[in-house]
């Protein structure tokens, strides 16, 4: 079997003196969609931020596409082909959809043209002259993902893309992620909505107290529900 596209081993991370990650291990293979689950505050967002280099105080190893990310600063990590969409989405609110899509540089072969983006996101085309502030939460989420597709990134880290969205929009985002998967995109996502995640995820990693406590393929999701309820406290 070929090397995972992303391989994280023994990842520790700190906010100042506060030790948030305690040796996270995970792998994501090319073309897979992998979902991180766990209670609030167990370190899911911190894992994504530490992989990207948004948290500088970190130890362990992070290998992505043949490169060692642990020593790289954020701006270099962002050019290795790994993109991050934070929970707060990170679009330019005062700029229009078009302007948001023009700004990201196409950094690798495979970066989508604006026309390709609009064929994948017809609703964004309809809103192309609207400023970010006038977009719905779902449109903002789609624009945030679309901006990453402009760059030609091979892998996306998505933090709770369905948070606060209406069911019909959640379904649309699910279809979009399924289409990206068909096109070979690799995704690591944080997601609390199991119904949504079960439709697109190949595997799950369960986190507790700053580390991974188990992982399993989507086929085991139903039989793992007891364990999940216990760890998730729901
Ligand atoms: P949530 O779903 O609530 O975002 P999470 O699993 O993503 O939860 P993190 O946001 O990664 O959890 O938080 C992990 C731990 O780090 C928590 O104890 C949190 O309080 C702490 N933490 C997060 N951000 C900061 C920060 N900027 N400064 C200090 N501590 C932080």
From TrEMBL:
It holds the Pfam family ABC_tran. Residues 6-234 form the ABC transporter domain. Keywords: Amino-acid transport, ATP-binding, Nucleotide-binding, Transport. InterPro entries: AAA+_ATPase, ABC_transporter-like_ATP-bd, ABC_transporter-like_CS, BCAA_Transport_ATP-bd_LivF, P-loop_NTPase. The keyword Hydrolase does not apply. Signal peptide: none annotated. Transmembrane segments: none annotated. The keyword Transmembrane helix does not apply. Gene3D superfamilies: P-loop containing nucleotide triphosphate hydrolases. It comes from Mesorhizobium denitrificans. This is ABC transporter ATP-binding protein. GO terms for molecular function: ATP binding; ATP hydrolysis activity; branched-chain amino acid transmembrane transporter activity. One of its GO terms (biological process) is L-amino acid transport. Belongs to the ABC transporter superfamily.
């Amino acid at each position: 079997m070929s090397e995972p596209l992303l391989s994280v081993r023994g990842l520790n991370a700190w906010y100042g003196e506060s030790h948030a990650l305690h040796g996270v291990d995970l792998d994501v293979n090319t073309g897979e969609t992998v979902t991180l689950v766990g209670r609030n505050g167990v370190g899911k967002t911190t894992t994504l931020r530490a992989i990207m280099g948004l948290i500088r105080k970190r130890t362990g190893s992070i290998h992505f596409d043949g490169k060692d990310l642990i020593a790289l600063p954020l701006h270099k990590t962002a050019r290795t082909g790994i993109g991050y969409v934070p929970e707060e989405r990170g679009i330019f609110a005062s700029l229009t959809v078009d302007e948001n899509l023009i700004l990201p540089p196409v950094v690798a072969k495979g970066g989508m043209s604006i026309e390709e983006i609009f064929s994948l996101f017809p609703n964004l085309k309809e809103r192309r002259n609207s400023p970010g502030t006038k977009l719905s939460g779902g449109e903002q989420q789609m624009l945030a993902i679309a901006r990453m597709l402009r760059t030609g990134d091979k892998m996306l880290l998505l933090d709770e893309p369905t948070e606060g969205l209406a069911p019909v929009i959640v379904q649309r985002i699910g279809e979009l992620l399924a289409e990206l998967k068909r096109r070979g995109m690799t995704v690591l996502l944080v997601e609390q909505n199991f119904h949504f995640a079960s439709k697109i995820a190949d595997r799950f990693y369960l986190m507790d107290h700053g580390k991974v406590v188990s992982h399993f393929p989507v086929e085991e999701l139903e039989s793992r529900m007891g364990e999940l309820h216990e760890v998730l406290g729901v």
